[in-house]
Design goal:
Purple Acid Phosphatase, chain A, domain 2; 27% helix; six-stranded mixed β-sheet; alpha/beta; disordered N terminus; single chain
Length: 331
């Protein structure tokens, strides 16, 4: 039986959200493929996309190679062994450069040159990733939105801003249209951490940036906050409390147990409580996968296992300013 005047409900928009892949080649490829796999309309990367380390691979006079990986000096004699090393470094999100012993000594003595090489290799990988997204997503209708995080150097992030991109879009500091009904505002900075990363700022300054973004939003009930750092004390920000008087910082313990504390942002929580967007997408704290409600806002952190080549994500269906369903994924 048909009902006169009853309007057919609009098909939900499906989003796939992941974050904190830190340069991992395998994890990024899984992210790009997730759009088709989960039949998503859009895939969103929430920051900390670039890697953290540069590994010198030293060519020895004998023709063999050596590299120090995770504190252990390893030796490589064949092309196959080198290939396996490259694959492992790519999985871990590390960059590498093959060099002679003299080149290595010159580089090691010049921190500024090390920084330049790191930025060069990080930008190169990000540029390749943009090209991969454009190739894989061409003609699918799936749009890929990417913002930086606190670990992403501004110079490196320039690689994601390109002209004439059809599928891959840098969305930070913008309010972008996700579909006819919903928008997304993105902020990639974080409040201070013990690690002194490139894009952490005082929480007060973060709050100012968030307010500038919110001034561009016309309808918060139909808006997504894609804020890299989670709201303070939300369970999405729970991680080991660190003693910053040591170098590197070490976990604080009590009665033999590691003490956990919220490391999120008060400014992010304040904005969510004030504006009550439909959805909050967060990352930053790898070990705090979960979903919580702050008022009407559904907030999510998929967590991260990038170093194992595992892609954690959130699959979210939205319609009419509501989160209709969500599912945490791992694969």
């Amino acid at each position: 039986m048909s009902f006169l005047g009853k309007k057919k409900s609009k098909k939900p928009t499906r989003l796939f959200f992941a974050t904190d892949i830190h340069g991992s080649e395998r994890t990024y490829r899984k992210f790009i493929n997730a759009g088709k796999f989960y039949e998503a309309n859009a895939i969103i990367m929430g920051g900390d996309i670039s890697g953290k380390l540069l590994i010198p691979i030293i060519r020895e006079p004998s023709g063999n190679y050596r590299a120090t990986l995770q504190g252990t000096v390893q030796h490589f004699a064949t092309d196959e062994e080198l290939k396996q090393l490259y694959d492992r470094l790519g999985l871990l999100g590390f960059y590498w450069q093959v060099m002679d012993e003299d080149e290595y000594k010159t580089l090691a003595a010049d921190p500024a040159q090390v920084d330049r090489l790191f930025h060069q290799l990080a930008r190169k990988r990000l540029s390749e990733w943009v090209d991969l997204a454009e190739t894989r997503l061409k003609g699918t209708g799936i749009r890929c939105y990417v913002t930086g995080g606190n670990d992403d150097d501004p110079e490196v992030l320039e690689a994601i801003h390109g002209a004439n991109q059809e599928s891959f879009f840098a969305c930070e500091a913008k309010v972008v249209q996700i579909d006819d009904d919903h928008t997304m505002a993105s902020v990639g900075f974080s409040n201070p951490t013990p690690w002194k990363t490139p894009r952490e700022i005082p929480d007060e300054k973060l709050g100012e940036i968030i307010e500038e973004m919110c001034a561009q939003v016309q309808d918060f009930e139909h808006c997504i906050f894609n804020f890299h750092v989670p709201p303070i004390d939300s369970t999405l920000d729970s991680c080991p409390k660190l003693d910053t008087s040591t170098d590197p910082p070490t976990p604080v313990t009590s009665a033999g147990q590691i003490v956990f504390a919220g490391a999120g942002s008060p400014a992010v929580r304040k904005a969510i409580e004030k504006y009550q967007p439909m959805l909050g997408l967060h990352g930053h704290i790898h070990e705090s996968q979960g979903m919580v409600k702050i008022g009407r806002t559904t907030c999510m952190n998929p967590g991260s296992e990038y170093g194992e080549g595992v892609l954690r994500g959130c699959l979210v269906n939205i319609a009419g300013g509501q989160v209709e369903s969500h599912q945490m994924t791992r694969g």
